[in-house]
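Hi R.,

Here are the chain sequences for the assembly we discussed:
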Amino acid sequence: MNKTVNINLAGIFFHIDEDAYLKLQRYLEAIKRSFTDSQGRSEIIADIEARIAELFSERVQNEKQVIRIKEVDEVISIMGQPEDYLVDDEIFEDEPQPTYKAKSAPSKKLFRDTENSYISGVSSGLGHYFGIDAIWIRLAWILLIFGAGTGILLYILLWILVPEAKTTTEKLMMKGEPVNISNIEKKIKDGFESVTDTVSGVAKNVSDSVSNAAKQVDVKKGANSIKSSSRTFFDTLGDIIMFFFKILAKFIGIILILIGAATLIALIIGLFSLGVVDIIHIPGLDLVDLANTGNTPIWLVSLLAFFAIGIPFFFLFYLGLKILINNLKSIGGIAKFSLLGLWLLSIIALVVIGIRQANEHAFKEYHIEKTQIPIRAMDTLNIKMTHNEIYNTGFNRSRSNFKLAHDDNGGKAIYASNIEILVKSTTDSIATIAIEKSADASSYDIAIDRAKQINYNFELRNKTLFLDSYLTTDPINKYSDQEVDIILYIPENTVVLFNNSTKSFLNYRKHDGNVISSKSVNHHMRILDNNSECLDCTEEDFELNIDAEGVKINDDGIIINADDSHIKIDENGIKAETDEVKVNIDSNGINIKTEN
Amino acid sequence: MKIENTKAQMRKGVLEFCILSVLKDDDAYVAEILGTLKDAKLLVVEGTIYPLLTRLKNAGLLNYRWEESTSGPPRKYYGLTETGKLFLKELDTTWSELHNAVTIVTSQKTTKK
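And here is the predicted structure of the full complex:
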């Protein structure tokens, strides 16, 4: 009993015994290997197959008849052994070649032996060429690598330049065996046997002998991990580069995930806490609400901000995840587009809110209240700031500082410290105080209303003017740059004494009709026409700044340079130098040096 | 030196000439060419002819056409091209000269004997 195989030979269908099939296959394979592509191999094989099919057809009486090994043998005897094809092979060469059958030393060619290779088969190829074991070549490579690394360069060069032994003919030439059909067929047979030997059936492992084949299979097993049988140098190089790129990509992916996740978590915490604040009204955090003149709900703004910032970071996170995990499931087009839409909406909404908020500062309006105070020329007026315990800003104020607190009546009020004191001279006989209140709003009416809503108090007691250091307003008005400018019109020849507490509310210099600067505090200042003079200033209070040639006097000290002498007095001490004497007085003591 | 090798080489030299000669008058398919050559004992096995035919075709000396067959696969019918005819003519002349020369040389030897 025999198993049969169905084959299609030149378009004709045949039943063929398995052993006969294998024999036929081996035969055709052997013929195939005796030609090269340039000789029109595929066409020749097609013709031969057609002829074999014809011969089979002659021998098959009916469709059910099976081709047996006998028929195959007959056909092979008619067609000729593989050697017979080679007779014509010489005809193909335009130049006469040295005959293979001559027993002269067969010519060897250098090929890379990828079947017995560790990297690319350069060493085993060289081994075949020089007729020594490849292990010596490999040892030589290792020595060369230690010798300044020239080995690596040479190896790579050989890898590129030396062709790989691919065809059986090349493999025979590599080993210096005569290239004749018998050898080719032997090699192919060995290949088949080794395939049967290795159940895994890797590739056609062509080897010199069957015993050798088994040994080489072991070598291959060991080497398989570091090589693939037919690789070029560039394949491997490409793989190495790709490997590094992949690592880099994964690294970027991890960074993206970390950034995305951290931002999202921070945003969620922020959103949650803001939402909670909005609901349970934690005192102090109401400030946000006070500044929010546009009256947009906080939770809405925070939610919009969450989407506007969170969605791009979510995509960043997703991208990182996708880089890291190759077969990550897509979140789906619908989800992507709705997120994109949500993001755009959030951005638009935020822009609208922003414009509204900015619009709240479009108009700045003033409300001025003037009051005469009984201060005349030659009087001395003291000016002090009064502080509030609830809103204690101290002397150092910040213009944009504001605070929500309960006032004396138990109600809530915004306290702010946008107070500025200006002093101007007047020819009137009596002093005037003008309280100029201003506020921002989106319209003139609201602005003026807000300005009016500012509460600011002062008091004159015993020729002492007590000014509030703060302004208050109702929280409904929001915090919208409420300011109070106090303009004091003081008759000429009046003496004013600004208490130290006013220092931070005064302008730091005189300008625009302001005659008292913050430097004048704690001094009796006589108001002159558009100016003021200090009555009790000591010398040190004078601002002296002389910078002439050779003489320099300023805040830092005194420097005098003459032709042959040099004096310097500053915070470090006194230094006087002439050509002959050097005097130095500093924290180290007194040091006098003379030339002689 | 093996007699077989010499024989084979001698046959080989004239094989191309013979194939072209077979096709001189009529187109023929491979089996017919083979039949003629085998009858003349110029060929022992058939395999030899296929690379040869392909080579002659690739050189532009032969062309072929496909024809259906009642038994078996379609057949390739080979015929001479114009170049092939000229080529054959020249080979013919060469063969005649060679034949002459060989006859002269061999007959000379026999007369000497």
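The interface with chain B takes residues 9-12, 31, 35, 39-40, 43-44, 47-48, 50-51, 53-54, 57-58, 77-81, 84-85, 87-92, 101 of chain A (CB under 8 Å). Confidence is low (pLDDT under 50) at residues 87-105, 195-211, 213-229 of chain A.

Let me know if anything looks off.

Best,
T.
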